Amino acid sequence: MKKEKGFTLVELLIVVAIIGILAAIAIPQFNKYKIRGYVASLRSDLKNAHTAAQAYLTDYPNLTVTVATQLTRGGYKPSQNISFKSGDMGTAGGSIILRSTNINSTNVELPQSKPSGYTWELVVDADGGDGEVMYDGTTVVPIVK
User: How many CB atoms are closer than 10 A to CB 21?
Assistant: First the structure.
């Protein structure tokens, strides 16, 4: 009688169970890393918007950055799924708020404390999350849950 080569059913079931356990651990971590990437993209866009606003205000020191076209004139190009929400940055102060549609209230939350000396009205809801850059370059972004 010849001995058959191959794996037994029990061995295959053990391998499938191990793969299932590893997948159950890895998938939630992957989602957190993905959300962290979206928040990093928002922070990067805020810094780029700040630089563009400073460039625009160098050319037009008597104006205030209030619309996205002013940032575009300063060299700002938004990343995918990031949009201009509001702004009031001038040569003496202010801020710019951008919105990311990749993050929402199910995966991020707003920081509990505000930077000293600043007031902001940021929103994280089902449609997206806001981030803000202040005149001095300080950024406020949502925190991954």
Answer: 10
A 10 A CB-CB count for 105 gives 16
Q: d(Cα 141, Cα 145) in Å, to the nearest integer?
A: 13
Q: What tens digit of pLDDT does each residue of 4-15 get?
A: 788 899 999 999
Cα end-to-end span (Å), the chain? 61
8-state DSSP, 129: E
Query: Which residues, 6+ apart, have CB-to-CB distance to 135 below 8 Å?
Result: 89, 92, 93, 94, 95
Say if residues 64 and 88 touch (Cβ distance below 8 Å).
yes
pTM higher than 0.85: no
